[in-house]
């Protein structure tokens, strides 16, 4: 028989056990909530407290390579190294108390300084200043941007208070080769010029992060790591040939110095594709050491500068009057070296001569301003303007390089009496090297103007290949007109005063020079100062490559003859580089006079 006295303790035990189980169940539910259901949220919250920590996971900026895959711009690992001042003092204290056999800071700091290149006093001051600000400081930056070699030497010291974090930095293995084109980065890692800037969407990387909790001893608490992976930039492949670029930069540098010019450029374009194979200029910039270059030399003048093209535009005028005016290489005009036209405009040639019955081919060979002006009358001013626009004058190029300019061409309705004729031989308007090369591409390429390009592709980090979107090729003149122009420009190379000097043995080439006056900024021209150009293509009977050489204010020789040596060597190198076969047929000589 159970009495009240025996039931009461048992009941109390059951009740107590129930309470304990209820509390325990509550703890379990709460523990599951914290560690399972809302684990991510609580870990994120924990990162905000004093024991939380994190690191940036750096993505690598994409590489810029030439047409063969050779690196023009890449990234290397550098290291930012930091010290733990509090741990340094603790270790020193343990050494004094004979609890540690480690090296004291006084002997380690000279070893660190020898590796980083700092003074011993500077390294010791870094720690001293951090402790003076906060006696419990766990962080002091030792040095940024250390090399892998320096990092390994520091790691070999094997001291727990020295930690290095790696990050990518930009490097240009060939220095100034393509520097004006490739561009450079700022100290803050922002692209500032050239393709580094205009193609930043391809090249830029996205940094990731790693966050975690650390115990009071600085050790990462397992299971608290949260990673957001970095995404590397893409590989930008250019149409440029690095070796050709290097050679042409040396060549134009020599020519600029030989002629005492302000600057010079050499541009090479593949006729059938519009791909730019070289864009060399001098002075140039070394992206590894931008401050060594004058500010005006830190961008591409090939794309940024505009100029009056001079007689190179006679080729465009000749193509227009053949295509729209029914003219041919044997069509003639009567012109002297000094012509006054019915509207009062006066045009003179660079050399005096009596009345000549010039053929159109002869006008180009002798580069007669008066002769081409008379031929220009055989189509309307509006038609000639329309052809200039179709050739791409004043429209820029499809390259889209940062800082690229456009030529200046006013509508023919605004041409005054003098401009009506001057525009036929490249005065009273401006253009750019890409525009001029594009126009001659149409002349050489069966009348089809190919959009210029300098980017072959962008290969993203995930392997996706993106090619640039380019305008459609444009038929500017007929194939027949193109053939006649190729023949005439070949005769310029054969019969002009510089023919012997520009010839490339074994090859048929076509050329045209231009000597443009330079504005004085007040509506006139500078006396005796010129911007000279020589543009041409080869082989003349089946054009493969266009070469354009410019000199800004050559002094020792002020005419476009100054460009001849560089053009001849440049074209020779281009034909060798791309193994273009020598000629197997002979040119047709055209008469200069009717």
TrEMBL record:
SUPFAM superfamilies per record: beta-lactamase/transpeptidase-like (SSF56601), Penicillin binding protein dimerisation domain (SSF56519)
Positions of the Penicillin-binding protein dimerisation domain: 58-188
Transferase is among the record's keywords: no
Top-level division of the source organism's lineage: Bacteria
InterPro entries: Beta-lactam/transpept, Beta-lactam/transpept-like, PBP_dimer, PBP_dimer_sf, PCN-bd_Tpept
GO terms of biological process kind: cell division; cell wall organization
Recorded GO CC terms: plasma membrane
Keywords noted in UniProt: Cell cycle, Cell division, Membrane
Subcellular location: Membrane
Molecular function via GO: penicillin binding
Annotated ranges, domain Penicillin-binding protein transpeptidase: 264-571
Coarse class of the protein's main subcellular location: membrane
The family this protein is said to belong to: Belongs to the transpeptidase family.
PANTHER family on file: PEPTIDOGLYCAN D,D-TRANSPEPTIDASE, PEPTIDOGLYCAN D,D-TRANSPEPTIDASE FTSI
Protein's name in the database: Cell division protein FtsI (Penicillin-binding protein 3)
Source organism phylogeny: Bacteria, Bacillati, Actinomycetota, Actinomycetes, Micrococcales
């Amino acid at each position: 028989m159970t009495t009240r006295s025996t039931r009461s303790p048992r009941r109390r035990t059951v009740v107590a056990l129930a309470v304990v189980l209820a509390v325990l169940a509550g703890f379990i539910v709460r523990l599951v909530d914290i560690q399972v259901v809302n684990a991510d949220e609580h870990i994120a919250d924990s990162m905000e407290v004093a024991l939380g920590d994190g690191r940036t996971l750096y993505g690598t900026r994409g590489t810029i390579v030439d047409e063969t895959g050779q690196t023009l711009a890449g990234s290397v690992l550098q290291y930012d190294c930091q010290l733990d001042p509090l741990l340094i003092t603790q270790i020193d204290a343990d050494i004094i108390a004979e609890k540690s056999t480690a090296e004291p800071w006084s002997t380690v700091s000279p070893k660190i300084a020898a590796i980083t290149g700092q003074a011993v006093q500077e390294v010791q001051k870094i720690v001293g200043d951090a402790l003076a600000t906060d006696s419990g400081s766990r962080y002091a930056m030792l040095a940024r941007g250390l090399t892998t070699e320096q990092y390994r030497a520091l790691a070999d010291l094997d001291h727990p208070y020295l930690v290095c974090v790696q990050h990518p930095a930009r490097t240009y293995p060939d220095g100034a080769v393509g520097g004006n084109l490739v561009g450079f980065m700022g100290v803050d890692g922002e692209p500032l010029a050239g393709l580094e800037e205009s193609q930043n969407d391809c090249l830029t990387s996205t940094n990731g992060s790693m966050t975690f909790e650390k115990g009071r001893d600085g050790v990462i608490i397992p299971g608290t790591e949260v990673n957001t992976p970095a995404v590397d930039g893409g590989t930008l492949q250019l149409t440029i040939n690095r070796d050709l670029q290097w050679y042409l930069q040396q060549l134009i540098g020599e020519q600029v110095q030989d002629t005492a010019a302000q600057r010079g450029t050499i541009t090479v374009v593949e006729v059938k594709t519009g791909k730019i194979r070289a864009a060399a200029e001098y002075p140039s910039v070394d992206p590894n050491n931008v401050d060594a270059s004058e500010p005006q030399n830190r961008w591409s003048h090939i794309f940024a500068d505009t100029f009056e093209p001079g007689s190179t535009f006679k080729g465009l005028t000749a193509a227009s009057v053949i295509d729209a005016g029914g003219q041919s290489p044997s069509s003639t005009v009567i012109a002297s070296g000094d012509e006054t036209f019915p509207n009062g405009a006066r045009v003179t040639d660079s050399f005096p001569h009596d009345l000549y019955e010039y053929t159109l081919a002869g006008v180009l060979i002798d580069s007669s301003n008066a002769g081409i002006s008379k031929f220009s009358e055989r189509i309307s001013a509006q038609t000639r303007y329309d052809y200039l626009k179709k050739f791409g004058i004043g429209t820029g190029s499809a390259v889209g390089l940062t800082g690229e300019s456009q030529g200046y061409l006013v509508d023919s309705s605004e041409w005054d009496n003098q401009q009506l004729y001057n525009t036929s031989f490249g005065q009273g308007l401006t253009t750019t090297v890409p525009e001029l090369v594009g126009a001659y591409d149409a002349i050489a390429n069966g009348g089809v103007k190919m959009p210029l390009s300098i980017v072959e592709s962008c290969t993203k980090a995930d392997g996706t290949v993106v090619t640039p979107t380019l305008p459609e090729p444009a038929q500017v003149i007929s194939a027949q007109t193109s053939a006649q122009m190729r023949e005439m420009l070949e005769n310029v190379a054969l019969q002009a005063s510089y023919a012997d000097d520009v010839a490339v043995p074994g090859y048929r080439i076509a050329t045209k020079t231009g000597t443009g006056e330079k504005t004085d900024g007040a509506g006139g021209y500078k006396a005796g100062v010129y911007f000279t150009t020589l543009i041409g293509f080869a082989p003349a009977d089946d054009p493969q490559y266009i070469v354009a050489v410019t000199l800004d204010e050559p002094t020792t020789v002020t005419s476009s003859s100054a460009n001849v040596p560089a053009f001849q060597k440049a074209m020779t190198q281009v034909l060798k580089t791309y193994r273009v076969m020598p000629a197997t047929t002979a040119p047709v000589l055209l008469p200069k006079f009717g």
